[in-house]
Design goal:
The complex is a heterodimer. By secondary structure, chain A is mostly helical. In chain A, about 70% of the residues lie in helices and about 0% in strands. Chain A has a domain of about 180 residues: Orthogonal Bundle (MetI-like fold), CATH 1.10.3720.10. Chain A is flat, with a radius of gyration of 24 Å. By secondary structure, chain B is α/β, with parallel strands linked by helices. Chain B contains 26 helices and 17 strands. In chain B, helix 4 crosses helix 18. The longest helix of chain B is centred in the first third of the chain and has 30 residues. Classes of the chains: A mainly alpha, B alpha/beta. The interface between A and B is large, with 63 and 70 residues.
């Protein structure tokens, strides 16, 4: 009886969370899976019927992956973009956090504010800024600077010149995203560093620890949990991010295929290519691609947790607390 | 016990997931608007099924005499206690295109006059909703239709018709239009085709445009001075007759470049192959659709010639290799308005765009400003898009806006279920009246679009009528006069009207792009292929293989595209 009452209480308190999770996570997930089994197009509910072969959209994607000369670029771009941007966002965020932690407080505040600017800037404005920066004409800021310095004698199409692809397009989309993403890690790591008891830092210094030793043996071990959180969070965010890339691709400053990530492919398939042409939208196909992305994301998330020793971190500490 | 409680919680979580998933699936399978089994062309909901659309009660029959029809419907509705009928007209466009909705307001004003004259106690009210932007999208209209919140009459791009028609969201007007055959026949042939889908008529043309080749007069003059060759002499006629083709134009472009008269031979749009560059397929005698099967066509010989032409230009430095990535405002338009190219593949709307946007850097002040109407006339000569080879025909391409009537037109009015046929007919008559030549001509002039009817095109040459329009002395509803007064002041000038009158003749040569839902996907592949040949990344032959590979890699697209013909090995350009 006592146990039944306990379970009822448990259920009572957990129910609101369960309902919210079901409503806003599981139901949309179920709908996405269902739509992936249909031929839904142009947002028409009339096309929302199960296909005779419900796995047709998955087969279609697999077929494109094998035979479409451009689709494979989406796969490569997704892998490179996610991993490289992740490394920059986590390591860069960590480096910045340590740098501002070690700085004088007033200077530190200024630098933190500076790095937050890209995140505070509206996406369209931010993307427009980089569009003009990398524009492949004399009007492009980078070209104008390099030509004024005599480094180049004619404009370079940074994001679209086949001789520079895919590296230049990848570099641009990674660079633009890193400037936004790195501030997230910086904020989390900086607050984590600030929560380390100051006495530990002073003690290390008194014991003669150099800055490098301080960082290596005191600071980083103290924020392992935060590093794991930022890594996993950023990994999943990067797998699904597309806003900045979409605008750069849409405006033609970077090569369409060497800059399209899987998430952007899902978006453009569901909502249209934009630009000058007429476009039908294929929600069934987009949903299938989204389901694959969700499965890959879940798998990578679990793998990251495993590699970063999540299980070890949640083991109850030995000894009495 | 602890394990048992964990098990119970897990079981509850799983139950919640299963229930949620089942609810979602049931909601979609059971609650969806369709219970049919076809996958490609679901019929309309029963209330709006095509068969029911034009089957009116005996008292409601269209005769083709507008006055008689509106009076009959008016009396019918009044006899059922309806004295005010409300409609919503919706469209999008640049601010000068407000007549896309105010034409319906004006039509209501004119129909109300007829009703009043005959003593019919009925008044039509139209709520115009106009937004800035491109065409309303079929998906948005369809979503609203599914919720019953859609507008009654919409002006949108003709390419949106299939989605709306296939889903039963718009009326099949075929039988009613057949009663108004004189109006129907007065629309340009290509525009009649634009509103026809699967042999049925789904709307009436509203406005259109054409895509001329713009030639810089000063560059041509410079060539004449340096070489003695007057390329513009009778050029429009030579192109019209197919004497000057893209082969001769290649030579002109080379002259422009070699004499230093222009930096480039030709400039065209960026980003998309649709619709400007698609003209090459028609100009080289190709096609994009098989009328028998309704499938898209990859016409290999025509597409190869198009790609080869662009590839050759880029190799000879006549067009920028990165043309498809140029910036409209910073590169394309300034290059054109400052005379750095001999030719620009543009659209009729550019004529006024260059007068309103500051693309031109004034050499005297160094400041950016728009060109004046006089400068545009002075600098630009325009022709049809030339034939590809000798023996082919010149072309242009249009993307008309059309009026469609919602299947549930008048749904906000009383006794809708009982009287819906009358409401639908009345909505159709509004569209018929909105197609009056003067209304269409006013829209053309103030928005720089081309008229869709021969009768409206004639009005553009009527000086007395134009003078009245300038002073707004025409008999228009006060609401419409107020809406267009400022636009009329800015836009009605002789140079622009003369341009529209001349450009409207191009509609006799116009082509349309397919209304096939997979056309956009195919056009995007063409755009990638053009980009690759311009850059020299692929040869024209490789580009054709690339296009074929792209089509075949998507099973759905492959089902919908026929690949016809082969690369013409003996063909030479120029």
């Amino acid at each position: 009886m006592k146990m039944a009452g306990r379970n009822a209480a448990l259920l009572f308190f957990l129910a609101p969370a369960f309902i919210l999770i079901a409503l806003f996570y599981l139901v949309p997930l179920a709908i996405t899976v269902y739509v992936s089994f249909t031929d839904m197009q142009n947002w028409s509910l009339y096309t929302l019927r199960l296909l005779p072969n419900p796995l047709f959209n998955y087969a279609r994607l697999f077929h494109m992956m094998l035979y479409d000369p451009d689709f494979v670029k989406v796969v490569y771009t997704t892998i490179v973009f996610t991993l490289v941007t992740l490394a920059f966002n986590v390591l860069g965020g960590l480096g910045l956090a340590i740098a501002v932690y070690l700085m004088e407080e007033r200077l530190s505040g200024f630098f933190r504010g500076l790095w937050l600017l890209p995140r505070m800037t509206p996406v369209a404005v931010y993307a427009l800024l980089w569009y003009y920066f990398f524009l492949g004409s004399r009007d492009g800021t980078l070209n104008a600077i390099l030509m004024a310095l005599g480094v180049i004698d004619k404009p370079v199409q940074w994001g679209t010149d086949p001789r520079l692809l895919p590296w230049s397009a990848w570099a641009i989309i990674i660079y633009v995203n890193v400037l936004v993403g790195v501030s997230f890690g910086m904020l989390i790591f900086y607050s984590a560093l600030r929560s380390i008891p100051w006495e530990q830092v002073i003690a290390a210094r008194v014991d003669g620890a150099s800055t490098l030793q301080l960082v290596r043996h005191i600071l980083i071990p103290s924020i392992r949990w935060h590093i794991m959180f930022v890594t996993v969070w950023q990994l999943l965010s990067l797998l699904t991010t597309y806003a900045h890339i979409f605008l750069l691709v849409e405006w033609g400053v970077v090569d369409r295929w060497w800059s399209s990530t899987w998430a952007l492919y899902v978006f453009t398939t569901a909502f249209g290519l934009g630009g000058g042409g007429p476009s039908s939208t294929y929600q069934g196909l987009a949903a299938a691609a989204a389901v694959i992305l969700a499965l890959v994301g879940a798998g990578l998330g679990l793998l990251a947790l495993r590699l970063l020793g999540f299980r070890r971190m949640i083991v109850p500490p030995k000894g009495e607390l | 016990m602890r394990a048992a409680s964990r098990g119970a919680i897990t079981a509850i979580i799983i139950a919640v997931i299963v229930v949620a998933a089942a609810a979602a699936i049931i909601a979609f399978r059971g609650g969806g608007p369709s219970a049919t089994t076809t996958t490609t062309a679901p019929p309309a909901p029963p209330a709006t099924s095509p068969a029911a659309k034009t089957t009116a009660p005996p008292t409601l029959r269209l005769t083709g005499n507008l006055e008689e029809d509106v009076v009959n419907i008016g009396r019918f509705l009044a006899s059922h206690g309806v004295h005010v009928v409300k409609y919503t007209a919706f469209s999008k466009g640049d601010p000068n295109s407000v007549m896309r909705v105010y034409a319906i307001v004006e039509a209501a004003y004119r129909l109300n006059k007829i009703l009043e004259k005959h003593g019919v106690d009925l008044r039509i009210e139209v709520r115009p909703v106009f937004q800035r932007g491109g065409s309303p999208k079929a998906e948005d209209i369809l979503l609203a239709y599914q919720q019953g919140t859609n507008p009654d009459i919409v002006a949108l791009s003709y390419v949106e018709i299939p989605v709306l028609a296939e889903n039963g969201a718009i009326l099949d007007l075929t039988n009613w239009v057949s009663k108004y055959s004189s109006l129907w026949q007065d629309f340009y042939k290509a525009l009649r085709d634009a509103v026809t889908y699967k042999g049925r008529v789904w709307g009436l043309p509203q406005d259109t445009e054409a895509r001329p080749l713009y030639w810089r007069v000063d560059v041509a003059q410079c060539i004449k001075e340096k070489t003695g060759k007057d390329i513009l002499a009778g050029l429009a006629e030579k192109i019209e007759k197919g004497i000057v083709t893209w082969h001769e134009i290649y030579e002109y472009m080379k002259l422009a470049k070699e004499t230093g008269c222009a930096e480039w031979g030709i400039i065209h749009r960026k980003g998309s192959a649709h619709p400007d560059l698609i003209q090459f397929i028609y100009a080289y005698g190709g096609r994009l659709e098989d009328p028998k099967t309704g499938k898209l066509v990859l016409d290999v010989p025509a597409v190869y010639k198009w790609l080869y032409t662009e590839w050759k230009w880029a190799r000879d430095g006549l067009i920028p290799e990165n043309m498809m990535h140029w910036d409209w405002a910073k590169q394309i338009h300034p290059t054109v308005v400052e005379g750095k190219t001999l030719i620009f593949i543009g659209g009729t709307w550019h004529w006024t765009e260059w007068q309103t946007k500051p693309y031109y850097t004034d050499p005297k002040t160094g400041e950016k400003r728009p060109l004046t109407a006089e400068e545009v006339k002075k600098y630009f000569y325009f022709t049809l898009f030339a034939a590809g080879d000798h023996g082919d025909k010149p072309v242009t391409l249009s993307q008309p806006f059309v009026w469609v009537v919602a299947s549930n037109a008048g749904h906000d009015n009383p006794k809708y279920d009982e009287l819906k046929e009358a409401y639908r007919m009345l909505a159709f008559l509004l569209v018929v009246k909105a197609s009056d030549p003067d209304i269409n001509a006013i829209h053309s002039i103030i928005s720089a679009h081309l008229p869709v009817r021969h009768a409206a095109a004639k009005l553009l040459n009527d000086k007395a009528w134009l003078e009245k329009l300038k002073n707004l002395q025409l008999d228009l509803s006060p609401e419409v006069k107020k809406a267009i007064a400022d636009i009329v002041k800015k836009t009605v000038n002789d140079i622009n009207v003369e341009f529209l009158a001349k450009a409207s003749k191009m509609l006799e040569w116009t082509h349309l792009t397919p209304k096939n839902p997979y056309y956009g996907q195919l056009a995007a592949i063409f755009a990638d292929a053009v980009d690759k040949v311009l850059r020299g990344e692929l040869t024209p032959k490789q580009a054709i293989n690339y296009i074929i590979q792209k089509i075949k890699s998507d099973p759905r697209l492959a089902e919908n595209v026929e690949i016809v013909g082969s690369i013409p090995e003996n063909w030479k350009y120029p």
